[in-house]
Structures are given as C-alpha cells and as structure tokens.
Amino acid sequence: MQAQIQLTGGDEIAEFTGLWQWLTSERALTGTVRVVRRPTAEDELGGALDTLVLALSSAGAVAALSRALTVWLATRRADVTITVKASGEVKLDARRVKDQDIAPLLRQVLRAPDEH
C-alpha cells in the first residue's frame, strides 16, 4: 500500500522538513519515505516540496506511521493540517483533533482496500 501525506499551515517548508525528518527517523519506516515535488509553475524558480509518499508493506509499518503521525501532530505549536491519502483520505488538524481521535482515523484510511 502507498500512503501520501500533504501538509498545509504554519511555516510549510519547515513543517514539511520536520515531518520528513520525523518519519525517516522511525526505524519501522526506514527506506519507505520519499519526497515528491509538484511540477514548477511558470512564475516559480523550482518545484516546491509537496508530498511525502510512503510504501507501507506490512501492518507494522502502518502502525508505525499511525504512531509517528499521532506524536508528531501532538508536538506542533503552529496551526498545521496534514492530509493522509491511501485507501481513503483524512485531514488532521494539529490544533483541532484530539490525540485519542487521530489513531482511529489513521487506521481507517490506512486499511488495505480489501479490509473495508
């Protein structure tokens, strides 16, 4: 399964970089995280960082991603929203979603399509 994560709000470059570093430091996610840049617009000098893509090949990797995102969101001070897409889509707002609500939402969107 492949999961895509996009981020909006706060200092987007710093938050995106922070999330990328956070996820790549998770042992269970080693080698699964890559950055995808969006195409450059006519008035831009280069493509912006846009999406983190994770190749999740096991239930352990899915659980590790869920835990990592839950903790990362809990440490945010800025008004940051992440969108996670896999078999579905969920938007998680760091200031408006309670920690105990994050894990069930992520489990639902990160389930394999045949588990729905």
Topology at a glance:
Layout: E1 2-8, H1 12-24, E2 33-37, E3 49-55, H2 59-74, E4 81-85, E5 89-93, H3 99-109
Characterization of the model:
This protein has 116 residues and is an alpha+beta fold. The chain is 34% helix and 25% strand. It has helices spanning 12-24, 59-74, 99-109, and strands spanning 2-8, 33-37, 49-55, 81-85, 89-93. A five-stranded antiparallel beta sheet has the order 2-3-1-4-5, with helices on one face. The two termini are 14 Å apart.
Please state the overall shape, judged from the principal axes of the Cα atoms. Answer: globular
Low-confidence stretches: none
Query: Widest sheet: strand order?
Result: 2-3-1-4-5
Give the helix/strand class: alpha+beta
Order of helices and strands: EHEEHEEH
Count of DSSP-assigned helices: 3
Q: What's the short version?
A:
This protein has 116 residues and is α+β, with helices and mostly antiparallel strands. Helices cover 34% and strands 25% of the residues. Strand 4 and strand 5 form a beta hairpin.
Protein traits:
single chain, 116 residues, alpha+beta, five-stranded antiparallel β-sheet, 25% strand
